[in-house]
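Problem 12. The chain below contains 127 residues. Write out its predicted structure in token notation.
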Amino acid sequence: MSDYKQNKVGNLYDKKEKDNIEIGYKINDESQQIIDPQNKVDRNKEIIVSTHFKDNSGKEKQNKKFVLKLANIKDKSNVLMEETIPNDEGTSGYEFKISPRKFSAGKYQFSLYRDNNLSVEKVFTFK
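Solution.
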């Protein structure tokens, strides 16, 4: 079994103004939002990472792919995890799970890229 469980998030009910990354333990099935997002998570529990992509609606060219990277804040060049997310029509987000005890305690950063351009960063702590 893989350390990462993933699935594509369907269309959300509200339009997003900017890309967003949320981390927590439970997701609302209807809204596809993390319930009570956290900046500090227990590394001994399974966590959910959820990304929500801003609504482009013809304002800019369609991005071909999104890349989500995870690195320890002390050494951002050492990418610990990388997920490539194809941007199919109607893709409004992406979520996956990180298994308990996969990473050691410390500060980490998720970085979301749109066609190799940094879109958003999220710093969090595994305690």
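Discussion. The two ends are 24 Å apart (CA to CA). Students who got a different answer should revisit the alignment rule from Section 12.3.
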